[in-house]
Protein backbone atom coordinates (compact mmCIF):
# COMPACT_ATOMS: atom_id res chain seq x y z
CA UNK A 1 0.00 0.00 0.00
CA UNK A 2 1.15 3.54 -0.79
CA UNK A 3 0.57 4.97 2.69
CA UNK A 4 4.02 3.82 3.82
CA UNK A 5 5.45 6.94 2.13
CA UNK A 6 2.87 9.29 3.65
CA UNK A 7 2.81 10.69 7.16
CA UNK A 8 -0.59 11.26 8.79
CA UNK A 9 -0.31 13.61 11.78
CA UNK A 10 -2.23 15.79 14.18
CA UNK A 11 -1.24 19.45 14.03
CA UNK A 12 -0.24 19.14 17.70
CA UNK A 13 2.55 16.82 16.54
CA UNK A 14 4.04 19.53 14.30
CA UNK A 15 2.82 22.89 15.56
CA UNK A 16 5.38 24.67 13.37
CA UNK A 17 3.16 23.79 10.38
CA UNK A 18 0.26 25.95 11.63
CA UNK A 19 0.86 28.94 9.28
CA UNK A 20 1.54 26.70 6.30
CA UNK A 21 -1.54 24.57 7.06
CA UNK A 22 -3.81 27.61 7.43
CA UNK A 23 -2.61 28.94 4.08
CA UNK A 24 -3.06 25.51 2.45
CA UNK A 25 -6.66 25.15 3.71
CA UNK A 26 -7.43 28.77 2.73
CA UNK A 27 -6.26 28.07 -0.83
CA UNK A 28 -8.46 24.96 -1.05
CA UNK A 29 -11.69 26.28 0.50
CA UNK A 30 -11.51 30.09 0.23
CA UNK A 31 -12.24 30.51 3.94
CA UNK A 32 -10.07 33.19 5.53
CA UNK A 33 -6.62 32.17 6.67
CA UNK A 34 -7.32 34.00 9.94
CA UNK A 35 -10.33 31.76 10.64
CA UNK A 36 -8.16 28.67 10.20
CA UNK A 37 -5.39 30.16 12.34
CA UNK A 38 -7.84 30.89 15.16
CA UNK A 39 -9.22 27.33 15.15
CA UNK A 40 -5.76 25.81 14.88
CA UNK A 41 -4.37 27.97 17.68
CA UNK A 42 -7.26 27.01 19.96
CA UNK A 43 -6.50 23.35 19.28
CA UNK A 44 -2.74 23.65 19.74
CA UNK A 45 -3.18 25.55 23.03
CA UNK A 46 -5.66 22.97 24.35
CA UNK A 47 -8.67 25.31 24.44
CA UNK A 48 -10.53 22.71 22.38
CA UNK A 49 -10.06 19.09 21.44
CA UNK A 50 -11.47 19.75 17.96
CA UNK A 51 -8.32 19.04 16.01
CA UNK A 52 -6.59 19.48 12.68
CA UNK A 53 -5.06 16.55 10.83
CA UNK A 54 -2.61 16.58 7.95
CA UNK A 55 -1.09 14.20 5.46
CA UNK A 56 2.51 15.01 4.57
CA UNK A 57 4.44 13.74 1.60
CA UNK A 58 8.09 14.81 1.38
CA UNK A 59 7.30 17.40 4.09
CA UNK A 60 4.59 18.96 1.90
CA UNK A 61 0.94 19.10 2.94
CA UNK A 62 -1.01 17.05 0.43
CA UNK A 63 -4.14 16.34 2.45
CA UNK A 64 -5.97 17.45 5.52
CA UNK A 65 -9.15 18.03 7.47
CA UNK A 66 -10.31 19.78 10.57
CA UNK A 67 -12.90 19.43 13.30
CA UNK A 68 -15.03 22.45 14.19
CA UNK A 69 -18.20 23.19 16.11
CA UNK A 70 -20.42 23.77 13.05
CA UNK A 71 -19.64 23.57 9.33
CA UNK A 72 -21.92 26.41 8.15
CA UNK A 73 -25.28 24.63 8.47
CA UNK A 74 -28.52 25.23 10.38
CA UNK A 75 -28.33 22.22 12.73
CA UNK A 76 -26.30 23.78 15.55
CA UNK A 77 -27.23 20.83 17.79
CA UNK A 78 -25.24 18.40 15.64
CA UNK A 79 -21.65 18.91 16.67
CA UNK A 80 -18.68 18.57 16.22
CA UNK A 81 -18.26 18.59 12.46
CA UNK A 82 -15.45 17.29 10.28
CA UNK A 83 -14.63 20.07 7.81
CA UNK A 84 -12.35 21.01 4.94
CA UNK A 85 -11.59 17.43 3.84
CA UNK A 86 -9.18 17.69 0.92
CA UNK A 87 -6.50 15.59 -0.77
CA UNK A 88 -4.45 16.92 -3.67
CA UNK A 89 -5.60 15.46 -7.00
CA UNK A 90 -2.39 13.55 -7.74
CA UNK A 91 -2.54 11.80 -4.35
CA UNK A 92 -6.16 10.68 -4.46
CA UNK A 93 -7.36 7.05 -4.52
CA UNK A 94 -4.60 5.97 -2.14
CA UNK A 95 -6.65 5.83 1.06
CA UNK A 96 -5.40 9.14 2.44
CA UNK A 97 -8.81 10.68 3.10
CA UNK A 98 -9.90 7.50 4.88
CA UNK A 99 -6.80 7.51 7.08
CA UNK A 100 -7.37 11.18 7.97
CA UNK A 101 -11.05 10.56 8.75
CA UNK A 102 -10.27 7.51 10.86
CA UNK A 103 -7.55 9.34 12.78
CA UNK A 104 -9.87 12.26 13.57
CA UNK A 105 -12.78 10.04 14.65
CA UNK A 106 -10.54 7.85 16.81
CA UNK A 107 -8.79 10.84 18.37
CA UNK A 108 -12.16 12.36 19.30
CA UNK A 109 -13.49 9.01 20.55
CA UNK A 110 -10.51 8.70 22.92
CA UNK A 111 -11.54 12.09 24.34
CA UNK A 112 -15.14 10.86 24.78
CA UNK A 113 -16.37 13.01 21.89
CA UNK A 114 -18.83 10.97 19.84
CA UNK A 115 -20.71 11.00 17.55
CA UNK A 116 -19.08 13.20 14.90
CA UNK A 117 -20.85 14.77 11.90
CA UNK A 118 -19.93 16.03 8.46
CA UNK A 119 -21.74 17.64 5.57
CA UNK A 120 -21.09 16.86 1.93
CA UNK A 121 -22.77 16.48 -1.41
CA UNK A 122 -20.78 13.33 -2.18
CA UNK A 123 -22.69 10.08 -2.15
CA UNK A 124 -21.08 6.74 -1.33
CA UNK A 125 -17.59 8.05 -0.47
CA UNK A 126 -17.93 8.46 3.29
CA UNK A 127 -19.90 5.22 3.72
CA UNK A 128 -16.68 3.34 2.95
CA UNK A 129 -15.25 4.68 6.19
CA UNK A 130 -18.16 3.91 8.49
CA UNK A 131 -20.18 7.10 8.04
CA UNK A 132 -23.98 6.86 7.82
CA UNK A 133 -26.35 9.28 6.11
CA UNK A 134 -28.34 11.10 8.80
CA UNK A 135 -30.39 13.92 7.28
CA UNK A 136 -30.40 16.87 4.92
CA UNK A 137 -29.36 20.22 6.43
CA UNK A 138 -29.73 23.75 5.13
CA UNK A 139 -26.54 25.56 4.30
CA UNK A 140 -26.19 28.62 6.52
CA UNK A 141 -27.61 31.68 4.77
CA UNK A 142 -28.31 29.77 1.56
CA UNK A 143 -31.41 28.13 0.08
CA UNK A 144 -29.40 24.98 -0.70
CA UNK A 145 -29.21 21.78 1.32
CA UNK A 146 -26.41 19.30 1.91
CA UNK A 147 -26.20 15.72 3.07
CA UNK A 148 -25.24 15.23 6.72
CA UNK A 149 -23.46 12.11 7.84
CA UNK A 150 -22.80 10.73 11.31
CA UNK A 151 -20.04 8.50 12.70
CA UNK A 152 -20.38 6.85 16.11
Low-confidence stretches: none
Q: What amount of the residues lies in strands? A: 25-35%
SSE order = EHHEEEHEEE
Total beta strands: 7
In round numbers, the mean pLDDT is 95
The portion of residues assigned to helices is 25-40%
Q: Determine the number of helices (DSSP H or I, runs of at least 4 residues).
A: 3
Q: Which geometry do the CA atoms define? A: globular
Rounded radius of gyration (Å): 15 Å
Structural class: alpha+beta
N-C termini distance: 27 Å
Main sheet characteristics:
7 strands, mixed
Q: Going across the biggest sheet, name each strand in turn.
A: 1-2-3-4-5-7-6
Notes on the structure:
26% of the residues lie in helices and 30% in strands. It is globular. It contains three helices and seven strands. The protein has 152 residues and is of the alpha+beta class. The chain has helices at residues 18-29, 33-44, 96-110, and strands spanning 7-10, 52-57, 60-68, 81-87, 116-120, 132-138, 145-151.
Short descriptors:
single chain; 7 strands; 3 helices; about 150 residues; globular; alpha+beta; 7-stranded mixed sheet; about 30% strand
Provide a quick synopsis of the model.
This protein is an alpha+beta fold and 152 residues long. Helices cover 26% and strands 30% of the residues. The protein is globular and about 40 Å long.
